Amino acid sequence: SEFEPIPQFQKIAIIPFHLLGYPEADNVFQIESSIEDAFTRLQIPAQIISARKTAAIFSSQGINQENIHSNTVEDLAYILQADAIIIGEISSEMKGDAHFDSVVLKLIDGSTGEVIWKANKEMAMQSDKEAAFKEVLTASRSKFPLIDKN
Length: 150
Description:
Blueprint: E1 11-14, H1 28-41, E2 47-49, H2 51-60, H3 73-80, E3 84-95, E4 98-109, E5 115-124, H4 129-139
Helix pairs in contact: 1-4
């Protein structure tokens, strides 16, 4: 069977978690920076637009937590001048005495709105977030369009 060629993205924007309705408290900023660090370490040949920069661009365009969901992925990518965006979902739960975060990352094509790649990871709150994200991204290497497989 023939596979569609996976697009080579030049610019990938990380959508800030707090704009998607996840609280700014706790470790959301730590998670965002862990994602950015993991991308940098994997040497993905694309420009990563940080969550902080994305938030500033959205703010200047009047996009906030109340109205972000009324925009399509394509709209958001256009505003950010990005080929693709990364959206994350965070949920927390207690298991016994341990507090776990479950994080889902999706890479979405900015021109089609199609989910290109998805990864999820459950981690203990006190675990090394950056290592965890590196693990998520590395485990997904085979599916990730931007990483040279050699």
